[in-house]
Amino acid sequence: MLSSILMNYYLSAGRTWLANLLTLCRSYELIVPCAWVLSRRMGAAGVWLSFTLAEALSWAALAAALALYRRARTELSGLLLLDRRFEESGRAIAFSVHSRKRGLDLLDSLDDSLGIAMIAAAASSVDCKTTFGVNNLTIIL
């Protein structure tokens, strides 16, 4: 189940190659060889065990891919490959805003009492996304 959550996260974050890696490993590349080997040794129980083994091997492949990718892109960190440069430099403000509106409609309707209009005018980039029902506003100064 966690692999499915990560696949959807990587797709929404624009890292489709990681989502594809997990999908291919779990669904095709690893499950068939695992099922074939384990069914010969353990029968039907081996086929069911192959799903768990393929999942574990998929996580190992993901860990290796993430390690290689983070070595090339040192600004990214963690399992989610988050870019922390803006937060560490103090140039970014990221927060969630409660509203029934989504995306750019949210940005247009924000109350100026938050000071968003003043900050957005000085910003080099303003991004508003709705992910899993949460409105996220990121402002890069």
Description:
By secondary structure, this protein is α+β, with helices and mostly antiparallel strands. The protein has 2 domains: 2-77, no CATH class; 84-140, no CATH class. It contains 7 helices and 5 strands, in the order ααααββαβααββ. The chain has helices spanning 2-12, 16-29, 31-42, 44-72, 85-89, 103-109, 116-122, and strands at 76-77, 82-83, 92-97, 125-131, 134-140. Helix 2 (16-29) packs antiparallel against helix 4 and helix 3 (31-42) packs antiparallel against helix 4. The longest helix is centred in the middle third of the chain and has 29 residues, at 44-72. The radius of gyration is 21 Å and the shape is elongated. The relative contact order is 0.10.
Task: Report the portion of residues in β strands.
Answer: 15-25%
Find the structural class using helix and strand composition: alpha+beta
Order of helices and strands: HHHHEEHEHHEE
Widest beta sheet: strand line-up:
3-5-4
Q: How helix-rich are the residues, as a percent range?
A: 55-70%
Question: Which ranges are low-confidence, i.e. pLDDT below 50, for 5 or more consecutive residues?
Answer: none
Query: For the report, how would you describe the main beta sheet?
Result: 3 strands, antiparallel
The strand count comes to 5
**Rg (CA only):** 21 Å
The outline comes out as elongated
Overall residue-averaged pLDDT value? 81
Number of helices: 7
For the terminal residues, how far apart are their CA atoms?
38 Å
Number of domains: 2
Concise account of the structure shown:
This protein is of the alpha+beta class.
